[in-house]
């Protein structure tokens, strides 16, 4: 029995220990081409800054790169961190992308900085001095995407009058309620905020207001997964992710290291507890275990779509992970 829910890919353009940003971009291109062949619905890139091991800072540039090296898969942002940018610039960038690649570009928006506060100030100094509400930034962005009005002095060229699919991303109740109020689809970051997931999705559905963009609520759920030939191999590969998360917990994020046979002795009991809480939705195993885990997640959340991250140390293991998951649904 196969899963019917569409699967998509979330890519942070990560480069593991001993590799470079150039290696990350080559891996992104290769994974995107495979994902298209395997029937994945979307390929989204996530904006991050000043984080060792992640090369997706120029997100719009990478979206164009992926779109140029694929034919049909939808490509977009998961997401653009809107407080880091002037809305006019985002409208121009995505208007350009949608002009180059018609009917293939998605714009997912988040309100977190995707970095630390000091880097956020460096990205957009005026935003730190004069903070603007996320909802107001979205309203401004939508103004630039709307058909231009007579006498309108500032227009997004290209961008004005373009109906680019817009998603709200989040890991909190705020983003769920805002997406519901605006009548937009909602993507929840279940891969790093599992404790808030079910309540945020319930809020979104309960408060959803139909709009001209969307008549009924639409939920995408982010999930981290490691699929391999066997449960044992998947558990081994997952130790790379555990080691990376451990450096995050300690405030010293490092590129993904090679997998190891055991985590024993690497973490203190309280660190293991925090990591287990952060990875409660992570699915690790061979095909049968991964299928059961994905099915359970879909049943629990009622997800209309899953967006999957599987950032492993070796590119060939990452490809195999996504290939195994693609085979679990009818393409």
Structure description:
By secondary structure, the chain is an alpha/beta fold. Helix content is 43%, strand content 15%. It has helices at 21-38, 59-68, 87-100, 117-123, 125-129, 134-145, 173-182, 197-207, 231-249, 269-278, 287-301, 315-326; strands spanning 7-11, 42-45, 74-81, 105-110, 166-170, 186-188, 219-227, 283-285, 305-309. It has an eight-stranded parallel barrel, surrounded by eight helices. Helix 1 links the parallel strand 1 and strand 2. Helix 3 packs across helix 6, helix 7 (173-182) packs parallel to helix 8 and helix 9 (231-249) packs across helix 10 (269-278). The mean pLDDT is 93.
Describe the structure in brief.
This protein is α/β, with parallel strands linked by helices. Helices cover 43% and strands 15% of the residues. An eight-stranded parallel barrel has the order 1-2-3-4-5-6-7-9, surrounded by eight helices.
Provide the fold topology.
Layout: E1 7-11, H1 21-38, E2 42-45, H2 59-68, E3 74-81, H3 87-100, E4 105-110, H4 117-123, H5 125-129, H6 134-145, E5 166-170, H7 173-182, E6 186-188, H8 197-207, E7 219-227, H9 231-249, H10 269-278, E8 283-285, H11 287-301, E9 305-309, H12 315-326
Helix pairs in contact: 1-12, 3-6, 7-8, 9-10
